[in-house]
Every structure is written in C-alpha cells, then in structure tokens.
Amino acid sequence: MLDLKQFFAAEIAEHEATLAGVKAGLGQEFAHLVQVCASAINKGNKLLFFGNGGSAADAQHLATELSVRYVSDRAPIAALALTTDSSALTAIGNDMGFERIFARQIEALGRKGDVAIGISTSGRSRNVLLGLREAKTHGLIAAGFTGGLGGDMVSLADPLLIVPSAVTARIQEMHIMLGQMLCGALEISLGLATERQR
After folding, report:
1. How far is the C-alpha of 183 from the C-alpha of 126, rounded, in Å?
2. Tell me, what's the pLDDT at 198?
3. Distance between alpha carbon 189 and the CA centroid of its chain, in Å?
4. pLDDT in tens, 99-113
5. What is the pLDDT of residues 64-75, one digit of tens each?
6. Which residues pair with 147 in a beta bridge?
C-alpha cells in the first residue's frame, strides 16, 4: 500500500534537488535567452513556441502570458504557439507527416530574426528537432528548453536551457517556472514593467 506521507516527501525532495541544480547551473543561459528574446522583440520580431503534450501546453501558456499580460497591463509582446491551430496541425500531419507539424508552420510564419523556442523534455522529439532545423535554415534564432543531457537539441539550439534531471515531471516543472521567469524578465527588459510592480 502506498505510503502517502513518504511519497509526498520523496516528490518534494526530488523537486528541490532539481531546483537546486537549475539554480546552480542555468543562470547564465537564462540571461542569454532573455537577451536574445528582448533583442528580437525590440527589432520587431516575434517568439514562436512549440512542443508536444505537456510541452505544447507550456508553449500555449507562455505565448499567452506574453501576448496578453504577465504581471502588469502593458503593450503586447509578439509571441505565438505553433500548437493551437487544429486545422494546420491536422493538415500538415495528414499531408506531410506528424514530424513536419512545426517545421511547416515555421516555414510559413517565421521570419529572419524571429526566435523559435522548441520545448522537449528529452531533446529527442523529431518534430521539435525538425522545427529547430527549419528555423535555422530560414534565419531564425533556434532556442529551446530540454532536460537530461539535452539530446539532439544540444547541436541545434542556442540558447538552450537544459534542466539537470532525467525525470519528465521534474523537467516540466522547471520548464514552466523558467518560462514564466522569461515572461517576467522580458516585461522588465523591454521597459513594459518595473521590478517594483512585481
């Protein structure tokens, strides 16, 4: 029988250990991501988020925080998720294959200087990798969130935030935290909010 007290404590301990690893190792790469995204927005470009499953939910969440609001009422920040158009997703999946669902949208919607942010806990999701490759081909900045050792995203994405964990749940927890931190940092970096407002 499950010992819920022990289960609860073990999950929290694992989360705390992963958070400690993020805190110790990702500060510089996080700053790099904020700088790249802020520079793109200042030049009139946009952010494109994409991923599968829970990462698709994160993509939609973060694009909404930026295009609508995060902390304060302010001008919108150009961001969209490539996971929300059911007609495009099913047409591309049916006609070109599921692995092309992000690459084709990047080909259609991406512009040189945009930032394509792929999210994959393993770093091995074929459609995310092809999306990042397509982004680089068209002059977009390929960036990402992943976990473990980074998988194949290591050679494709820069900046790349690699959560130091092999546990999908812990990686996803850190991805949404880092993503929301990105939203807050962008509001401030773009002059749309002040630290005092937070």
Report:
1. 27
2. 54
3. 18
4. 999 999 999 999 999
5. 999 999 988 999
6. 163
Helix ranges (H only) for 26-78 are: 27-42, 54-67
Cis-peptide, bond into residue 76, ω within 30° of zero: no
Query: What's the pLDDT at 70?
Result: 94
What pLDDT is stored for residue 127 in this prediction?
A: 98
What is the per-residue burial (b if ≥16 Cβ within 10 Å, else e) of 119-146? bbbbbebebbbbbbbbbbeeebbbbbbb
* Strand ranges in the chain using DSSP code E only, listed in sequence order: 47-51, 79-81, 115-119, 141-147, 160-163
Mean of the pLDDT values across residues 45-73? Answer: 97
> Is 62 within 8 Å of 46 (Cβ atoms)?
no
User: What's the pTM value of the predicted model, to 2 decimals?
Assistant: 0.96
Neighbours of 195 (CB within 10 A): 8
Which residue type is seen at 28?
A: Q
Residue with tokens 């301990």: 13
CA distance 197 to 11: 33
**What is d(CA 46, CA 133) in angstroms, rounded to the nearest whole number?**
18
Ranges of beta strands (E only) in 11-150 are 47-51, 79-81, 115-119, 141-147
